[in-house]
């Protein structure tokens, strides 16, 4: 059985949510657990209460809005994402996944459909990590990655703790973290990349998440005057860093599969001056791959290239791995449910791996999970200019509706 | 006729001067026209007055200390440099060139030698440019590069003008800038580079100054998330900048003559983040060469490589030339006088071009000029650790004495 969602109604709810915490250039600012974030949640709850849903909040503020099914003894099928934004964020990142869940509830209500399993619409707290680092901390707590105490003790820039902000927001709940258990979890999200748009496809069937590793790299050479120091006697830290960046870029660009991704996001030269040879450079390296073995090989190559670049320029090098996030494979059945729904609707799609982290990464550790991507303009997100068309939002929501209905089963 | 200078006495005057404005780690802080700078000048004047010298100050504080010769109708042969330092500067940069002049005066006095031409010991104001930008502003004013009014109006970080600081220092003179005319000018200076030390040579016979050109370079790509953006769809501003740096470094290193010098001193990524592809990079480029035609070719190559790197990475590039300082050739007779003196003393030496700017660059526009370099440890300057051995300082001073005596002529 399939139920048609209402693209126009979904769009209107997206635009209504965007009125809370608007920014100058058409984006949104609803930092986690601020008044704006709380107002966004209350608006969602108003809409859901009108549908007769009840809701609970766990101890780290994760919000669970329940649409009862025929079988109260079964674990719910869940839909969700987040409502918080970056300081100058967009109207879709996270929000689409939440309001698509609302739209599914409304579409089911309209037709008086009761599912076998209950449904849960989940709003995870502080996904962005802009106010409280790290990102996805509350879904991570739900999944057991972080303790409740450590999460509540995290502080923002002003020294306010997560726990204090949670109290102030009115969303401090008493449900133990980890409840309710979920039969499965489905998250619709904008792609945050340019692949679907470039290929003119409407849906990304997200089978997992790339493995990611983060490094801090240091180059220690010798600062010296630009003019009097011959090239051959230099120890130029920037020259060594530049060669490393260029080698890694070339290596990644030469991988015809397109699965190797290398990004150097930050480069700093302490006390730099235009006529002084840089004596010290700090560089960040972000390596990603869809295959863990290939990611190991990429790391090894990076370490070798780093040593070679240091040697070429007489510069001491060092690196530290700050973070290692393994390749995530989502649940085969859930992914299959999404792919089948997409195919049956006739939408152009591709199976793909997410390059960014999402709440689904953590949730997938404790519940069968899948994600659905829709294109966003120019691949831009975390930006006021972030945009997804009503049609793409609607298609993503439709696939979501079909997949969760298949998973939850229809009672009547 | 040759006169032996006293290496020990020179060293003692260097160490006595270093007691004024000492820094924690054995360096000096005598920013231009501060109390410390004025105290340094007064100490020098005490020493010179004891020799019977008289002195004048011009309107921008340049100090001229005269040792009379037999022929008052002839222009003086001048020795000089500067006494001001960087905020954490050393004990030799500039100071050696001034105190070597004092030592020459003392050595002549000891032997009762009168020169034909008068001698002038010159202390140029604000050579370093640390307090009032740009560097060498007062010798530049003397040479007609800057107007007196514009120099007096320059301000430090606290808004104090050069003119106000000059008044407060007690060194505001009324001699018109540009007086006295000089027969010739000789400046002894530490090399500020590693060449002489590496070659185990005592003296650099400085025949001129490298040409230098400074550029601001901009790379405008597209910021995007590191994970979801395939390599082939990126517009990575840092990747383009890194390739440019690497190409320019390789080109300079491949020049067997060693005359091509390329330095990228500053690289900035506005709003960088480790998992965001850099959308914007600002880079500085400093090109130097001893030959103006080769420097033209180097500039052309830089512009071509820049365009190619931009194209390779889909990044818009731009550059602006901020400064162009042509190759300077010092006066052949003055350079010859230095070289002859060095050879006759049997000191290991090389003819070389200065890679850094000095007061001599400006002075050479209005008077025959030459410079003498002595090695400094590890090529380090503008640093509290700056060091030159007593022996090298003495040898430099000896060459200076021999050269100016040859130039000025001995009357009795």
Features:
homodimer; Alpha-Beta Plaits; alpha+beta; 412 residues; Aminopeptidase; 5-stranded antiparallel sheet
What would you note in describing this structure?
Two copies of one chain form a homodimer. Chain A has 412 residues and is an alpha+beta fold. Chain A has two domains: 7-209 and 327-408, Zn peptidases (Aminopeptidase, 3-Layer(aba) Sandwich), CATH 3.40.630.10; 211-325, Alpha-Beta Plaits, CATH 3.30.70.360. The first copy, chain A, has twelve helices and 16 strands. The first copy, chain A, has helices spanning 7-17, 35-49, 95-110, 137-142, 148-153, 162-169, 195-199, 237-253, 292-313, 332-345, 359-363, 390-408; strands at residues 54-57, 63-67, 77-81, 119-123, 184-190, 203-209, 211-220, 224-225, 261-263, 267-268, 276-277, 280-289, 316-325, 328-329, 349-354, 369-374. In chain A, the strands form three sheets. In chain A, strands 1, 2, 3, 4, 5, 6, 14, 15 and 16 form a nine-stranded mixed β-sheet that branches. In chain A, strands 7, 9, 10, 12 and 13 form a five-stranded antiparallel β-sheet that branches. A two-stranded antiparallel ribbon of chain A has the order 8-11. In chain A, a hairpin with a 5-residue loop joins strand 1 and strand 2 (63-67). In chain A, helix 8 packs antiparallel against helix 9 (292-313). The longest helix of chain A has 22 residues, at 292-313. Chain A is elongated and about 85 Å long. Chains A and B meet through strand 8, helix 8, strand 9, strand 11 and strand 12 of A and strand 8, helix 8, strand 9, strand 11 and strand 12 of B.
